[in-house]
Amino acid sequence: MDVDARLWRSFAAVADELHYGRAAERLRITQPALSRQIRDLERTLGVRLFDRTSRRVVLSPTGRAVLELARRALTESDRAIRLAKHAAAGTWGELAISILPSAALGQLPAIVRAFRTTHPDVGVRIVESFDDEQLAALASGRSDVSFLRTSAAPAGIELHPLLTEPVLVALAAGHRLVRRDRIELSELADEPFVFFPRHRSVLAYDEFIAACRAAGFSPSIVQEASGISALGLVAAGLGITIVAASYGAVSVEGVHFVPVDGHQLTLQLAWSADNTNPALPSFLVTARETATRLNGS
Q1: Residue 55 is part of a domain; what is its CATH number?
Q2: Sign of dihedral through CA atoms 163, 217, 219, 209?
């Protein structure tokens, strides 16, 4: 049996006021209309909700029994309506974000903090992964937005540059180059490299190899690791690695960072053009505005 929520609301108003005139005024309808609604509800339920005389209105035993349940149902109905409106407006729901490890050390914290300040009811779920995994997650809908470094993306994936930052070489303490202010990539030709596996991000890996070859050498990759793990291997003296400048904020004992002259990395914001998550447009605006503020431009 379906009962219009409007009839339950009228029932609750009369139960609160125990007076049809005051209840009608509260609901902003006429008293005859309110009386019809109560009769319609009683007829639909097959029960009497009020005992009425010419002098007073009181709840019947049945009315008292169902009043609390009716109020709870109205509260849940109102909540569902509010949530539906918030979800449609992008102020409620969940946003899935995939990030490079270095993004968590850079602008991501400030961006997420700013977004959660204005959208406290949108849950944020963050997964760490590399470029190729992120692009696949965007295409499948498993991720709403990504922070990655690829310079190209499949059809349907939008890219927006957020930040361009220097490239650093991470060196072990005591390395011959640690006292340099800047290093040419060609000066690293004879060094053993620690670098991430190619399958994690084919395009970024191939761009690194191409940059080394343009500098006159093919890098000798002796260990495969990424992020903090790669820095740990550098500290152990197993090789050097190339990282984004955001890693300069990480203090790893025995590791020194020196800029690589003439080389930069761009952090991209990526999303699927077909994504319909209502929270996504607001997040994109927040990300761009926060990045602009942090970059001072």
Answers
A1: 1.10.10.10
A2: positive
